[in-house]
Every structure is written in structure tokens, then in C-alpha cells.
Sequence to fold (559 residues):
Amino acid sequence: MAASGLAGLGLVIAAPSASARAVRTTGTTLDTVATPVTTGTAAYTRLAAGPGWPLVVREELVAGKSGRDDRRTALTAFVQFTDLHITDAESPARFEYLHPFIGASAHRPHETLGPVATAALVKRVNSLRSGPFTGRGLDFMMTTGDNTDNHELIELDWFLRVLNGGTFTAASGDLSRYEGVQASGSPHFWNPDTALSGDDYTTKGFPTIPGLLTAGSAVTSPGLDIPWYCTFGNHDDSVVGSLPEGIPGIEYWYTGRYKIIGKDESSARKLADAIKTPGASVPVTELFGGSGTVREVTPDPRRKPFTTAQFVQAHLDPANTGSGPAGHGFTSGNADGKNVYYTFRIAPGITGISLDTTTLTGFADGSIGLSQYLWVEKTLTRASSTYYDFWGSKVTQQVTDELFILFSHHSSTTMGNILPDSRHPLDPRLTGDMFAGLLHRFPNVLAWVNGHTHSNKITPQPGKTPAQGFWEINTASHIDFPQHARIIEVADNADGTLSLFTTLIESEAPYAAAYGDNSPAALASLYRELAYNDIHVDLGHVGAAGDHNTELLIVNPLA
Fold:
């Protein structure tokens, strides 16, 4: 196969073009990509349809062989959503006023449009129906954590309704008016109803769009047409994804009537430093109360934070089965919230492993408990005819071969938080490097798919032998630009190699819409546009060409 090199990256771009190799590119970033009309991020810009991204062939783990397109047999095709961050933007238990010191994780100008925009992502998946390179029908969708932003019952309800289908009002408190920071008149935030003067958003050129905040609350989602599974993330188990559990009186701040929308700079900076410093004591009463500018909001008991057990039980509720499967991966064995990891059938001969890399001790990053590590080891050993022991010696046994793809919220580089998890206080915590070392022992592991970083990043994880390598596939969030999801296809090339095709997709929304157009498609379009223009935007999240639409070559351990 003819190819041209990308110097220094160890990558090649395959020829012929992606369009020639694909069954269909329409609706994917192989075809078109959201592109700013004006380059840079200093001034507000609209978006337009830019040229699609090419297919990049990555051969760091094994070289591809010519003619494989003609021999290719599809094994599976599925979709990854990650970091949806469905947000109750009116909740008192948030600290948006810290965004100048913490960034987008504290506040985003588009966050109230999250549910309607996620419904547009669901529509995109339903319209695609199959993988672009193999043509295989999509087997399922996996969402890899941070499904909610502040683990509120109401956010969990919205998340389930968007994926399963339904019509609902994505608002809390007084449903007749918006009570969040963006209707407060505070210059710390973009107030779309009223043009302010001198604030960072107006200075950048953010438009005035009266009625936007209430228009975005009317949500109708068709629900996914394919089965979907769920993995747990740190925002699903912690106050704003970073504070430890068991904070005395925390429900008062969630369900109360007083919302802090501003503090003096010195106080805000100290609070931000405490949140970002591992081991630091966070004064919660000062974070959500104390002195500062207070906005009175309508109390809402639906804002109560859910427990890990309640998260699982909501998925097990027959009312939330949607397109299935029942429990969306979770079973009655997970219902107590102690262990929320599981295996599931991806396709014949391929097993998925969904992990729990969160810890309830606080801070955003994660790790894995020793008991879960040993469970993964046992799962892989039982299904692999060949593996390597702890010392690197090859072991052969008589069992049925199975291929594996693992899913987690955290990536290998964000699993350094080894503080004990209160669900298993005596269970040692292990880092991402230690866990990757386990996976290298099993040639049957093809990929580790994750999120958390809000970035597109695909990393080869070579082992001591070519067969011991696997690919780590990290995908950007659906809340921060570029707001991607990813289709992953696995194909047998009938030559001793497998190909993993990864194709990024955007929501089914135009790249620009008229301001004041309150149709769901227009609001989803604005969600993307505002994310690009956020004063905290990090275009590094977009990734490089080799992190986008790729063919990842790997040894077929069963050949």
C-alpha cells in the first residue's frame, strides 16, 4: 500500500484516500469538521464546515500488509461517548465563581444547553447506523464516565432520558425562570439576555441572545437505537468531581435556597488553590456559603446528590432500560455500589471489561484497587490460552481464546491518585502504569478505551514482544470543544494482524445557526460554537492527526 511518512511521529497516511477505503464517510469527520471562520481564540468567531480529516495509518505496534482492505472481515463496531457532563447549571452546590482560577471545570457559558446538545449526538449515532470502514452495524455505545457533572439525582434523570429517549424539562428550581449565574448580572459570567460592559465575555465578542437560557430547557431525545453500556466517572461520584464524600451537611447546600455567585479575589484564589492541592483541607462552608455575593434560588429536592448505589440502581430500574440491555452493563451484583465494574459481550469472540477507576476520597484523578486489579487478571487468565506471568515467562493453557477491549473513565496517565477509597478502605490503590503492566501480560488485550482528559489522544502501548502491545484510545469530551464521540471498528485482516479503525463524529447539528433560532438543532449548534469561544478553551484537546481518524494495526493473537 502506497504511503507518505509523517516525520517524527512514526505514522503514515495511507493512500488511496480515506474516502476510497471507507464504505461511507457522510456524517463523520472524514467528511467535514467544525472549523472557525476566523482563526485563533482571541476574538469571538462563528464556525463553518471545514474539510474532513484524513485516515492516518499507525504501525507502531506492527506493520500493515498490502491488500488487507480486500481481505478485511468485520468483528465489531461500536461508539464511545465520554464526559457528557450533563449539568444542573442552577444548582447552589457549584462554585462557578472560581472559574477565573480553575477554568472550564468550574463554569462553561454553554453548559445549560448540554441535554439538548447531547440529544443531537444521539441523533447522529442513530443516523449513521454502521461503521464507516467495515460497514458493520453498530453493536452498542459505551459512555466512559462523567455522565453527570455534580452527581445530582436530577442530572442522572436527564442523562438517562437523553440516552433512552423522552421529552423533559432540563431545568431545576423555578421552572418558569432561569436562576443560575448567567442571569445574575454578574460580570464574572456571560449573561446572554443582557449585554454587559467590560467583562471578559463581552470584550471577546459574545453575542446577546435573549431567551436562550430558558429555550434550552425544552428537550426531546429520540433515544439511542442501539444498546448502550455505562462506565462510572469521578463526576458521577463526587461533589463537582473533586471533593471527598461524607462532607457534613452537604445536602443542605445542594437542596437549599442560597447560591454563592461571587467572592473577593483573595478568598476565591485561596479556595481554588485548596481544591487543586492534593491533601489540602477544603473549607466547604466557605466554598458554598460564608461571605460573598449571594443569589437566592428556588430549593429543589431533586438536586440531592446520589450515591454510587443509587447510580447503579437507576440503571437497573426497568423504566430506564431503553434500547437495553437491562442495567446497561450493571447487574444486581453491582447494586450495593461497592464494586461497579463488570464484563459484557461485545461480539462473538470479544469481551468488554468496564472498570471503576474512581475513588471517593476526592480529587479528579483516579487509580484502581488491588481487588479489582486481581479480578481483571483472573478474567483475562481464564479466557486466554497464552499469557505471560509476572516475571515475563510465557504460559500456555488449554482454554477458549477471547479478545478483550477495556473501558475506564481515567486514562493511564491520570491514575496517580492512590488515596484509599472509602468503599474499600483497606484495599491498596494502584497507578495507571501498574495497570498497563498487567495488560501487557495478555496478548488478547486489543485496546484500552477511556476519557477524563477531554482530549483526543491515541497512544501505542508496546510490550516486550509485538504480541504484547495494545492501543490506548482516549477521546475528547462532549462538553468542551471539539465535542467529539468516536466510532471504533475491529477488523481481521486475515494476515496475522487486526485493524482498529477510529473515526470521530460530531453531533447532528449545523455548524452555524441564526441567533434566536430556538430549534433543537440550532441550540446544539450554538453549544458547539460557544464551546469553541469559551474564554477557557484549550485547542490542545483537539489532538493531532494521529489522534483523530486512524487505522491502528495490532498483532492478531489468535492467528
Q: What stands out?
A: The first strand starts at residue 3 and ends at 6. The chain has 14 helices and 25 strands.
